[in-house]
């Protein structure tokens, strides 16, 4: 009888595909697991202060949950089932207080205007939370969590992303891009995809000079996609990157962000939502040349670019060493802007992992 050391075997297999792996996991769960009801969560967003993060559809469709992070980097306990009696209602916002605690662990924002399919995004200053859904954008003051503005865009408003300097807000609605300035939230320009194409997501470069859109074909049996690059200030077209070979699902947009720039703007990560299993590609931003690929439906760069999460694993970007695993069923991930902590959302739970 031959005994096989499975740990060593897995390390050998990873090495064979060009990935090194640490002998001991460098990521560990921090805090308690937050259990979820079976809801459709498309993305998660951290405030730039690191003091809160927002998750849409947390309790029910048409809602946003704001979780507060303490100065010690911890999130308060939250039950998996709620009733109105569990909340303190103040000025249209519902706050949940754990027993014997003075400070709330969560704020719950019911959104009567948005009953389905939306995403969340903080402004770079962290003062404003944008919620996209139905035909509009709702803006909230993150100090009071009161709604400060409602902007009607058009049917199927699915995404709203702030530029790095906070002066622009890129909105995806009806397969088009609407670029707005954030002083008065007036429209600057609109970008439509070419014939038989639609736009599904937008990502600003870290410099803010350019932005990328994820464009896909809507022709039956030809669901291919690509990245197109534009100038932020004018909306002028810069270039199209080559089409990806893999076919995608007919309507992408279940796992935001679908694309994001690396911190140095030299690469773009893109999630391909395929009918049978997702794939994440890392390509050069100038010509679309493939750098590396991963399995999974969601990805995230750490703010300093030293870490990358994809396919249930965390990588060191300097040499693509695997630092550890979190979950193969993750639907969205994001890094804290203030500490080496990865937030992972699955259909059943929310977990936070500290990366050593």
Give a structural overview.
With 356 residues, the protein is mainly beta. It has a single domain, classed as YVTN repeat-like/Quinoprotein amine dehydrogenase (Methylamine Dehydrogenase, Chain H, 7 Propeller), CATH 2.130.10. It contains one helix and 31 strands. Strands 3-4-5-8-7-6 form a six-stranded antiparallel sheet, with no helix packed on it. The two termini are 39 Å apart. The N terminus is likely disordered.
Helix content: under 10%
Work out the number of β strands. Answer: 31
Number of helices: 1
Q: Using only CA atoms, what is the Rg? A: 20 Å
Mean pLDDT rating: 87
Unreliable residue stretches: 1-23
CATH level-3 fold name = Methylamine Dehydrogenase, Chain H
Main sheet properties: 6 strands, antiparallel
Compute the separation of the termini in Å: 39 Å
- Domain unit count: 1
For CATH, the homologous superfamily is named as YVTN repeat-like/Quinoprotein amine dehydrogenase
Q: Could you name the CATH class? A: Mainly Beta
Strand order in the sheet with the most strands = 3-4-5-8-7-6
Percent of sequence in beta strands: 35-45%
CATH architectural designation: 7 Propeller
By secondary-structure content and strand pairing, the structural class works out as mainly beta
The geometry reads as globular
């Amino acid at each position: 009888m031959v005994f096989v050391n499975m740990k060593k075997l897995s390390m050998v297999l990873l090495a064979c595909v060009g990935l090194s792996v640490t002998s001991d996991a460098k990521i560990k769960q921090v805090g308690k697991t937050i259990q979820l009801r079976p809801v459709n969560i498309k993305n998660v967003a951290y405030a730039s202060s690191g003091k809160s993060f927002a998750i849409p559809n947390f309790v029910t469709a048409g809602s946003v949950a704001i979780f507060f992070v303490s100065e010690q980097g911890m999130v308060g306990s939250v039950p998996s089932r709620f009733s109105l009696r569990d909340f303190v209602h103040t000025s249209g916002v519902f706050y949940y207080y754990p027993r014997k605690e003075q400070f709330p662990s969560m704020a719950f924002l019911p959104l009567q205007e948005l009953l389905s399919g939306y995403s969340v995004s903080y402004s770079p200053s962290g003062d404003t939370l944008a919620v996209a859904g139905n035909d509009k954008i709702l803006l909230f003051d993150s100090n009071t969590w009161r709604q400060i503005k409602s902007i009607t865009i058009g049917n199927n408003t699915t995404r709203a992303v702030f530029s790095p300097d906070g002066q622009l807000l890129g909105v995806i609605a009806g397969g088009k891009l609407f670029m707005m300035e954030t002083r008065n939230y007036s429209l600057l320009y609109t970008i439509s995809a070419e014939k038989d194409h639609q736009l599904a997501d937008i990502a600003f470069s870290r410099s803010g000079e350019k932005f990328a859109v994820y464009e896909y074909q809507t022709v039956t049996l030809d669901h291919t996609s690509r990245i197109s690059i534009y100038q932020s200030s004018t909306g002028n077209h810069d270039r199209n990157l080559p089409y990806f070979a893999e076919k995608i699902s007919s309507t992408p947009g279940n796992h935001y962000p679908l694309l994001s720039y690396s911190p140095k703007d030299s690469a773009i990560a893109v999630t391909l939502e395929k009918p049978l299993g997702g794939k994440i590609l890392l390509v050069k931003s100038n010509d679309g040349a493939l750098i590396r690929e991963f399995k999974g439906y969601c990805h995230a760069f750490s703010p300093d670019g030293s870490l990358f999460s994809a396919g249930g694993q965390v990588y060191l970007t300097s040499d693509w060493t695997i630092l550890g695993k979190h979950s193969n069923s993750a639907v969205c991930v994001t890094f804290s802007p203030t500490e080496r902590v990865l937030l992972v959302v699955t259909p059943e739970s929310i977990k936070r992992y500290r990366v050593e």
